[in-house]
Design goal:
- The radius of gyration is 24 Å and the shape is elongated.
- It has a domain at about 10-30 and about 70-200 and about 215-225: Tetratricopeptide repeat domain (Serine Threonine Protein Phosphatase 5, Tetratricopeptide repeat, Alpha Horseshoe), CATH 1.25.40.
- The chain is an all-alpha fold.
- It is built from 13 helices and no strands.
- Helix 1 runs antiparallel to helix 5 (about 115-130) and helix 11 (about 250-260) packs antiparallel against helix 12.
- Helices cover about 60% and strands about 0% of the residues.
Length: about 325
């Protein structure tokens, strides 16, 4: 069961905000001007004159540094010109113009550590513009520079799972890529998530859980379309468990209901479908589909008859 890529998906909205926060605001704190000079980095050699008389004192014991959250710090520019060019490209609002600026930057600074960060920012712009193919294209480009970036991996996995059609000649290849990307994101989220050093452990933990939730959801979508309902059920349940309370994507509840329905777990399916109805925006495509599933299961289970199989998940977006 598919929805348009630009629908009101809470997970994708949060991911968009995450991309923005990590790719623009955080990098502004790591300009070359803020890097310590060599003189600041190196202590004075023993016996060297510093212009201050030496006073014999007992060496002070430094206070233990607080444990740093496990994440990858944003890179910094090597020169002020590189940083200025990065800022100009990152601040270009139109996606097509921003893509040209990013390509120009990558050509002018082929050794820059900021290329992946810049394309991550562009990926966010295309996602906000509801351009799924360009979002996928840009996510793949991010991964050429940052192959372990869990944000780009989850974005690519989600687009591939959402937008692959039954009639696509490369359907299996796209699904395989989606699962591979999602599984890799689950492996790298604790080591390669780029975040500002000012992030709190609570914020970091929330971001990681959100990305893991989306990775499990993407795998579940592929399993559901491949009619592996037992595997899909497990993936959707893991996705829901990792979501913040009250912030589960309604479509995940609906997909879980379909998997449970196919497995003849009708009572559980009805519970999941009811959750989809209660959390989806009124009159939205997801709400209407969930209501149909609730009505169907309620009538058939209430009459004591065995319900026929649920309508299989399709690749067509709900109308």
């Amino acid at each position: 069961m598919k929805v348009p890529f630009g629908s009101n998906s809470f997970g994708l909205l949060l991911l968009s905000v995450l991309c923005l926060a990590f790719s623009v605001a955080s990098f502004a704190q790591t300009t070359p001007a803020q890097q310590p000079t060599q003189a600041q980095q190196q202590p004075a050699a023993p016996g060297a004159s510093t212009g201050v008389p030496a006073i014999p004192t007992q060496a002070a014991q430094p206070a233990p540094a607080p444990a740093a959250p496990a994440h990858k710090s944003p890179p910094s520019a090597k020169t002020q010109d590189e940083f200025a060019a990065y800022q100009a490209a990152a601040n270009t609002s139109d996606p097509a113009a921003a893509e040209k600026a990013a390509d120009d930057f990558a050509a002018k600074y082929p050794q820059s550590d900021l290329r992946g960060l810049l394309y991550s920012n562009l990926m966010r712009k295309y996602q906000q513009a509801n351009d799924s193919e360009k979002t996928l294209e840009t996510a793949r480009k991010v991964l050429t520079y940052e192959p372990n970036d869990p944000v780009a991996l989850v974005m690519a996995a989600t687009v591939l799972a959402e937008r692959t059609r039954e009639s696509d000649l490369d359907r299996d290849e796209r699904y395989d890529e989606s699962v591979k990307d999602a599984q890799k994101a689950l492996e790298t989220v604790n080591t390669d998530l780029m975040a500002p050093n000012s992030i709190t452990p609570e914020q970091l933990d929330g971001a990681k859980k959100m990305l893991m939730s989306m990775a499990h959801s993407a795998i579940g979508m592929v399993d559901l379309d491949r009619k592996d309902d037992a595997a899909a059920q497990q993936q959707f349940q893991q996705s829901i468990a990792l979501s913040p309370p009250g912030q589960v994507e309604p479509l995940t509840y609906l997909r879980l209901a379909l998997a449970q329905d196919h497995l003849k777990q009708y009572s559980d399916a009805l519970t999941s479908a009811n959750k989809a109805v209660s959390t989806a925006p009124p009159n939205s495509p997801v709400a209407m589909l969930a209501k149909q599933e609730v009505d169907r299961l309620s009538k058939l289970t209430g009459s004591g008859t065995t319900p026929p199989p649920a309508t299989p998940a399709t690749n067509a977006p709900p109308k």
